[in-house]
Amino acid sequence: MHCLRDEDALIPSPRGSLPKVCAALVATIATMGILLLSPGRLINLVALATLIVTLGPLLHGLYLLFEELLHHSNTRYRGRSLLGHVLPACGLGPKTLLAAAMAALLLYLTRHSLMHKGQSWELVVLVPVLYALFKCLGVLGPSEMEVSDICEERKMNVAHGLAWSFYLGYLQLVLPSLEKSIDSFRDSHRDSFWGRGSQKLLILIPLNANISHKLEDEDSYIQFYDSLPNTELHRAGVRDRVYKHSVYRVKDERGKAHDCAVEYATPLLTLYRMSQERNAGFGEPERRQQVLLFYRTLRDVLDQSLECRNRYRLILIKDEHEDDPHFLSKTILRHLEQQNTEEFCLSGALQQETNKPVEVEDWHHSEPMSREPTLMISLDRPQPLRGPIEDTDLN
User: Fold this and answer.
1) What UniProt keywords apply to this chain's record, in alphabetical order (predicted)?
2) How far apart are CA 210 and CA 288, in angstroms?
3) Angle formed at CA 350 by CA 345 and CA 353, multiple of 5 degrees
4) Which of 109, 115, 259, 364 is 20 to 30 A from 270, comparing alpha carbons?
5) Crossing angle of helices 284-303/158-166, nearest 10°?
């Protein structure tokens, strides 16, 4: 499901590999410069730099390992293996250990050069010790961007959990039967103004996460009309748990009414309440970022869901509309109009394809492989099967 272009401009995209490219480029330029200026000392300098860079994280990882083994081995790891779980958790994974092994190898190969008067052997000991100290004190801790990148890559954000919970605990259960509920509602409400393009559940996602429990309180052009037939499912020990959707009547500036099923994404209530609780440590900037990540995650999850396809529409609501009392109704109507346009174009194309006359004379012409397969009908009368013909040359 695609959103509007102005919504795409607000959604943060996943971070790319530009820092890695920049690091590789600068390292290459620095190495080439040293190779041109001091070609005989390149190996020695690389060995010294590798030792300084890798021994610091290794020493810091050992500090963390002591803490985990002495105080948390039973409660946090519950007897899991040292190599498979504890060491990677302390930052002593395969990459760090491989870098340390390479540093030890370079130390062995360049042990005579490092003792030269021109080399700073003391730095090999002093820099890792100071690095581990500053790391433990938080001076060299990960930046906010790095923490955010790790949380997004490993799906550890609050927004990821809320989006998956909203999908698995609600949308995946109710959206497959939405079309049937809408058809039943339209049959029982002959006076309904339900358009062709509103056969989906409109899910509102405001950026400020401030949700009103009644849409008519936010916009006088929106009025509650009725509810769709209830969906009852056995869920988590509850017999016949009821899921329901509200139908709202939305009027435009000319007074024309449009009926649709619309509701807020309820997990945003959790984000808003967390930002109001001091113990959560969740301010307004973090809340806004989590709302955007919630929208992006939910959109990506629903795009891959066959059960929910073409049964929903996500509407991201900006928070710069205090001066417009009918911003919400205009936003909903704009999405309904877009749905009508999309479905009209699609149905018109299918109708033209269906009404296209069949050219019997041209059935033998080959079709391009890139086109949809067509059914070729022959008007010739069926012929009887022919017996085998002996064509062996006996001469």
Assistant:
1) Endoplasmic reticulum, Membrane, Nucleotide-binding, Transmembrane, Transmembrane helix
2) 11
3) 125
4) 259
5) 40
Q: Name the one residue in this structure whose structure tokens are 């990148």.
A: 149
C-alpha closest to that of 61 among 105, 106, 97, 104: 97
Please write the tens of the pLDDT for every residue from 174-231: 999 998 998 888 888 888 887 655 689 999 999 888 888 889 998 899 999 999 998 8
Alpha helices in the chain (DSSP H): 5-8, 18-37, 42-71, 87-89, 94-109, 111-114, 121-137, 144-153, 158-166, 172-174, 178-188, 267-276, 284-303, 327-354
Burial class (CB in 10 A: 0-12, 13-18, 19+), 390: exposed
Whole-angstrom CA distances from 370 to 220, 351, 374 are: 51, 21, 12
Sign, CA torsion 64/70/76/79: positive
Long-range contacts, 2-6 (Cβ 8 Å, 24+): 3/299, 3/314, 3/316, 4/334, 4/335, 4/338
Q: What is the structure's pLDDT at 120? A: 63
d(CA 361, CA 365): 9
Residue among 221, 314, 203, 219 nearest 261 (CA): 203
Q: Do residues 332 and 315 touch, judged by C-beta distance below 8 A? A: yes
Tokens of 234: 């056995």
What interhelical angle do 284-303 and 267-276 show, nearest 10?
Answer: 160
What per-residue confidence (pLDDT) applies to 367? Answer: 41
Q: Please give the domain boundaries of the chain with CATH numbers for all domains.
A: 5-153 (no CATH), 158-351 (3.40.50.12100)
Cα dihedral sign, 168-169-170-172: positive
Parts of the chain with a pLDDT under 70: 1-9, 40-41, 79, 82-83, 107, 110-121, 143-144, 146-148, 150-152, 154-156, 195-198, 320-322, 342-395
Q: What is the spatial distance between Cα 176 and Cα 71, in angstroms, rounded to a whole number?
A: 49
Amino acid in the structure at residue 110: T
d(Cα 289, Cα 205) in Å, to the nearest integer?
A: 13
